[in-house]
Amino acid sequence: MRILLLEEREDFDKILKDTLENTTFFKNREGKKEEKYFINKYLNFIATNRLSGNVFQTLVNEYSSSLIWWKKGMQLVYVKLAISMVFRSLFAQRSLMLSEDFKNYLILGGNHRLRLFYGELKDSIVILKSGENQKFMKNDIAIRTENNLSYAPKIFDSDNDWLREEYFNGIPFNRIESEERKRNLRDVIINNHLEELLLPNLRQIPLTDYIHLIENEMSELITDENITIKKDVLVLIQKVFRILFMKLSSNNVKISWSHGDFQPANILVNNHNYKVIDWEASNKRFYLYDVFTLFSKIRSNISLTKAIENYKNVDKSFDKINKRTEEEIILLLIEELRYHMNEEFSKNFYTAGIKTEKLCYCITTYIYE
In this structure, are strands 113-118 and 105-108 parallel, antiparallel, or unpaired? Predict the structure, then answer.
């Protein structure tokens, strides 16, 4: 998420400072002198005007690869100028004073974590934002260390609030121009994900245990006095979960480790190689949730009804995995609501649950239409 949007929902500057000053990754910092850092809200970075432009390669890959031909050249020129040492301060929207300990790092904003790049881009640092739930780091580390995933960046080192991982130089999957190449690569990606993660970790649990798991998770979040959320929103979320639970007829639910946000923007591609990044939403869920997230295109601002339609129309080659029954759709709706609830219930947010509330209305509309 870009800094432009992060500023609308949280005290971004305070969280940034608290995170960098208190993380154990910079535990040996001097902390005496401060330096001016420039913030580009649109390219989502914080850096001094002396940081080498080579470190910005990940932003060049992401923001200069528009699928609209006439925008591509313009975006590339803008990105090149905005990251250059000469024009960086001119293109920045504002500046911020931070410790000089971070001057050699390119800092990128994120939902629950910051990402830092430096030096020769052999690796990158992911730091949990101050005030965020440690599960975003704990689950990320667990899923990648417990499973030998060929398509996940290797974790070189980690602690409770940070990890250092392999750097991969690629463009986001959704920036690929050829639709045929995207379809072929998509099939490879989802098959590898099934074979290496979803199916090896697959297990059945009683429906009662599944419901209990989600209710406990919800209770833990809504009883946190540090999270600001309207009571009527809480009532609505609980009501929609109950409606969905009542529509389940099976006595068991198949769950597995899952990425949680398995969307094209989190898949980087370089020729025939690819890596899936941003594993912070990892959790044990209904095992087809990642398949749904990728095929439905639900993260691309389309309606819930359209997303479900996309998923139901998945290539028939995947019929061997599921029949896309209404029972399955209900489980996917439960997991979508669960995902948003976990994403939005944060003590850092001015108001939690805004998108979750909208999703609740979309779910009830879909069910009763």
Answer: antiparallel
Contact present, 242 and 367 (Cβ < 8 Å)? no
Query: Burial code of 135-173, b = ≥16 C-beta within 10 A, e = fewer?
Result: bbbebbbebbeeeebebbbebeebeebbbbbebbebbbb
Give residue-wise pLDDT tens across range 261-318.
999 999 999 988 999 999 999 999 999 999 999 999 999 999 999 999 999 888 655 6
Question: Is the full-model pTM beyond 0.85?
Answer: yes
Cβ distance 173 to 268 under 8 Å? yes
Using CA atoms, how far apart are residues 211 and 245, in angstroms rounded to an integer? Answer: 7
Q: Please classify residue 257 by burial: count the beta carbons closer than 10 Å to its beta carbon, then call 0-12 exposed, 13-18 middle and 19+ buried.
A: buried
Strands (E), 33-179: 34-40, 45-47, 94-99, 105-108, 113-118, 123-128, 155-159, 162-166, 171-172
CA distance 55 to 43: 14
Q: Which domains does the chain have, with CATH numbers?
A: 3-132 (no CATH), 172-368 (3.90.1200)
The tokens 């639910």 sit on which residue?
253
CB proximity list for 157: less than 8 A, separation 6 or greater:
163, 164
Contact indicator for 154, 164 with CB cutoff of 8 Å:
no
Maximum C-alpha span of the chain: 64
CA 202 to mean position of chain CA atoms:
23
How long a stretch of residues is the chain? Answer: 369
